[in-house]
Specification:
With 258 residues, the protein is of the alpha/beta class. The chain has one domain: Alpha-Beta Barrel (TIM Barrel). The chain has 9 helices and 8 strands. An 8-stranded parallel beta sheet has the order 1-2-3-4-5-6-7-8. Helix 1 links the parallel strand 1 and strand 2. Helix 8 crosses helix 9. The mean pLDDT is 97.
């Protein structure tokens, strides 16, 4: 039996047609054992944490998305305070997003640095979002590494040079349903090259449902389809890919299996 980890989902969001308990059952039915529910703003962190507290194999992060405006600004002190909870295993999602320009780049960078500092204090990994900000994100990743912080480039959709820079900085690379899309051949080439001990899979649900479910509301169960495609691209069995990515997930987030 395979055991997968969805390393990035948002099952506290109100987007799902199914009840949360059903989403978890769906995931477990397809071999998805671990879920990491990701924070995008401090106002919603109690709901993120409540999901993690509802199941021994669901975990949480604390952070503020780079392009969320009109939310509480995350100081390093506040992030570290909230991340002291035992079900919190990472800081983020943070990063840089120059696609929508809802938050000025310099404010995003300052916010990112506060996340880096909180991660440094607690020894927790960062969850990094990057969109239309390749060069600045790589620079910030290197800055984090210089401060002894690692983490994961979530929903990776960049080129090999960007992946290689992140890997050199000690970061992991996580692939979402995008890797299954017909218009993503270059991304599949990146997935072939990432070392087996730095590879993760995710849904980013409720967004980016993989083939054959593209267009539907994504859910943690669908990480299996992403894993199947990544495994095929790498010439591996699903069992091999699941074992590697789940071991990586547990190691990165310092989770002891029950």
């Amino acid at each position: 039996m395979i055991e997968l980890a969805d390393s990035h989902c948002h099952i506290d969001f109100p987007d799902y047609p199914e009840e949360r308990d059903q989403l978890v059952r769906n995931a477990r039915d397809l071999g998805v054992r671990y879920l990491l529910n990701i924070s995008v703003c401090l106002e919603d962190f109690p709901a993120v944490l409540a999901v993690a507290e509802s199941d021994p194999e669901i975990y949480a992060t604390v952070g503020v998305h780079p392009n969320y405006a009109d939310v509480e600004e995350p100081t390093a002190d506040r992030l570290a305070e909230l991340a002291a909870h035992p079900k919190v295993v990472g800081i983020g999602e943070t990063g840089l997003d120059y696609f929508r320009h809802q938050v000025e780049p310099e404010t995003q960078k300052a916010r990112f640095r506060n996340h880096i500092e909180a991660a440094r204090r607690l020894g927790l990994p960062l969850i990094i979002h990057s969109r239309n900000a390749r060069e600045d994100t790589v620079a910030m990743v290197r800055e984090a590494a210089e401060r002894g912080v690692n983490g994961v480039m979530h929903c990776f959709a960049e080129d090999w040079a960007t992946a290689e820079a992140a890997l050199d900085a000690g970061f992991y690379i996580s692939f979402s349903g995008i890797v299954t899309f017909k218009n993503a051949p270059e991304l599949r080439q990146v997935a072939q090259k990432v070392p087996a001990d730095r590879l993760l899979v995710e849904t980013d649900s409720p967004y980016l449902a993989p083939e054959p479910n593209r267009g539907k509301t994504n859910q943690p169960a669908f990480v299996r389809y992403t894993a199947e495609r990544v495994a095929a691209e790498r010439g591996e069995s699903l069992e091999e890919l699941a074992a590697a990515t789940t071991a990586n997930f547990l190691r990165l987030f310092a989770i002891e299996p029950a």
